[in-house]
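Chain A, query sequence.
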Amino acid sequence: MTTRRKPRTRRAQARSAETRQLILDRALALFRKRGFERTTMRQIAADAGLSLGAAYYYFPSKEAIVLAYYQRHHDDHVERFRRLVERAGARPGPERVRILFESKLELLQRDRRLLTALFGALFQSVGQPGAPLSVFSADTAPVRHAAIELCREALGGDDQVLALSLWLAQLGMILYFVHDRSSRQERTEHLIDGAMDLLAPLLAAAASPLAAPLRGRVTALLAGAGLLDQSSPTSSDDTT
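Chain A, predicted structure.
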């Protein structure tokens, strides 16, 4: 009997995943077309050919749909980053960081219309403590931590401060990108190119023993703000 149930269970799980993906795809399409605020869960359910209750079963709110998009976007970034790193044989450090930013920019360009549609809601959430869509909220913590870990992977080593700094720089790039009205966001590309040219000497300076006191103070400051996990090792510990 157990053997007979497993195929049905797998089929049910597959159907559930397909339905969830359908709702997500339809919702994102409506966000692009109508904007986040003007789109309702009822419209999303109707567009997916489902009842409103079924839509709520998979996503309790529009915010939950955006959180699922965050995760999918991050998963796409990880896959693209690692594929390009392997193809280029890029070493940890400036080479991989350039790929990290360039692959992120490619995904942003793909999703530009959606990001523009979501930007109002995302911008408002930044200034609202506890807002689920805020990049610093508990709801976005899993994707945030995974993104910071990817930054650490690009840098090599276990330096939390540098990884967090790189992630914050990436946030700045996203904000600049959304407002960039140049052809094919050429200004954002130039900004990345210029930043990458500065990266090697900045990493060398950060790794210098002379920077250890400052790094210790920065680490304590960020940890006190809840932005660092003090249980993980950092390279600043090695230099002090």
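Residues 63-229 form a domain with the Tetracycline Repressor; domain 2 fold (CATH 1.10.357.10). Residues 24 and 68 are 8 Å apart (CA to CA).
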